[in-house]
Amino acid sequence: MNDIVLKEYDRTIAHLKGIRRVVINNCFGGFGLSHEAILAYLDKCGVPVWTEANDKFGGLIPFNYYLVPPEERIPGDPDNWHSMTLAERAAHNAAYSRTVFHDRDVARDDPYLVQVVEELGARANGRHAELKIVEIPAEVNWEITEYDGNEAVAEKHRTWS
After folding, report:
1. N or C: which end of the chain has fewer CB within 10 A?
2. What's the rounded Cα separation, in Å, for the pair 153 and 133?
3. What pTM value is reported for the model?
4. What sections of the chain are H helices per DSSP?
């Protein structure tokens, strides 16, 4: 069997055994995907993306990932921001958020995310991340805990990292 068939076989067996796979950040810094990983994830999801370089924030966020073409975009910082009411600002932010992709919004047990991290390995890591796939029992009601960006998957009485 080739490696791709073996990985798919392993995923199927884990699913049948009731194992959930969750992506966490395994170092101080914080969860984040690389540019390559974001593009691979969106491709697997079948989501079209328009990528543009971002020179704001000193290169901390090097790209913007738009889910709509340029002619359908809502400006992130409109000229009338300061004259908007709080309700108008909230509505603007909600509308803008629907047009952009943020890696932190992805469910950590999303099968496409797990697959991208598995396939890319260290190349999936964002700027301050060292991503790791943790396996937990599927029936566990879990959450991600963190200290300075170093994460673990936890249940009330158990923790995996």
Report:
1. N
2. 10
3. 0.83
4. 3-17, 35-45, 86-97, 111-120
Q: Which domain holds residue 136?
A: 1-32+108-161
Whether 79 and 119 map to the same domain: the answer is: no
Q: Which residues, listed in sequence order, are joined to residue 145 by a DSSP beta bridge?
A: 152
Please count the structural domains in the chain.
Answer: 2
Residue by residue, pLDDT tens for the chain (161 residues) are 566 666 777 777 666 678 999 999 999 999 999 999 999 999 999 999 999 998 877 777 889 999 999 999 988 788 899 999 999 999 999 999 999 999 999 999 999 999 999 999 999 999 999 999 999 999 999 999 999 999 999 997 767 77
* 65 occurs within a structural domain: yes
124 inside domain: yes
Domain boundary among 59, 76, 100: 100
Backbone angles phi, psi at 65, to 5 degrees: -115, 105
Q: Helix or strand or coil: residue 77?
A: coil
DSSP assigned state of 160: E
- In whole angstroms, give the CA distance from residue 28 to residue 31: 9
Residue 30 and residue 148: Cα distance in Å, rounded? Answer: 7
Cα–Cα nearest to 23, from 121, 144, 102, 109: 109
Q: Does 43 map to a domain?
A: no
